[in-house]
Amino acid sequence: MDLFVIAREYLIVIYFITVLAKKKPVPVLDLELDTNRTDTEKVNNNSHLFEWLEFDNRFDCIVGITVDDKPVGIGILIYEDFIITSANPLEQYLEKKDNNEYTDPKNKVKIHAIHDAFNKSKVLNVGVITGNIAKRNDVWIRMGFNKTHSPIHDLMLIKIPEGQVKKPPATNQREAFYLTPDFDSYFTSGWTFAGFGYSDNYHIAENIALENTLYEDSDVADCDEWIPRAWGRFVCLSNVENLEGVQSGAPLFHEGGLRGVGSFALRKGKESILVFTDYHLYTLFSVHKSSLSDTLDMENNTLDMET
Fold first, then answer.
1. Torsion angles phi and psi, residue 254, rounded to 5
2. Helix (H, G, I), strand (E, B), or coil: what is residue 64?
3. Residue 124 has what pLDDT?
4. Residue 159's closest CA among 60, 296, 49, 48?
5. In angstroms, what CA-CA distances link 43 with 49, 56, 183?
6. Domain limits, the chain
7. CA-based end-to-end distance of the chain
8. For a FRET experiment, which of 52, 109, 150, 270 has its CA 20 to 30 Å from that of 117?
């Protein structure tokens, strides 16, 4: 091999080394894996499944909901023994009865409430589950990825034994609490909602890390321009943040109280809205205005809309 060939091959090698050195590294996602626990602990111990906001305990009234240990939804502790959530994520896993009750014969549904730290939780026992099954079956349009969701009366009430949660703590202690009249001072302006999976595709796929979003009064949309009245009564927000959607069961707070429960999102061209079932139109009224026991039929656990 002559010197010319050797020099040419040497220059080619130098060229590729230079190109590779200038190439930008492929970005990777920092998943913040918990390396302090073994794989067995990660599978068997789901006390670290959900994460609440690390420096904000106003949202500790929110619970995560799993089916077969898979995150499927979110709920709000509206009284010491009741959780309100969306019916859509859970209905497919439950059996329906004639008296507007659902049964969970295999005990698949679990409620996860914050306990001790922002990334720790405890499992609450699940009692009677009720909804407006009769009226939800009377629907002419189905929504969602598998076309099984109904926009009508998209609420579900989950009973839990008393004594598992308490009133809001006086300190920064991280414990689940139920809504009380004192909750009025937590959110004083705008419309605030939160969820474990809604902001982008990654957040939705993970469905475990709580985030919150604040919208202004000017962001409220006219539901009648988007939704037929036959679907129900809703609170609609223009999707000014261009979020992927709203999590089913997500709480919508306004002027300190619970105003809506997340149901679905609608898109029309480049515009979209986030839709919350109007909680105020139901007889289980917000506890920040009256005692829940005065407005909820405790014997029948009704979810009837006020007319």
1. -145, 130
2. strand
3. 94
4. 296
5. 10, 28, 36
6. 47-295
7. 95
8. 109
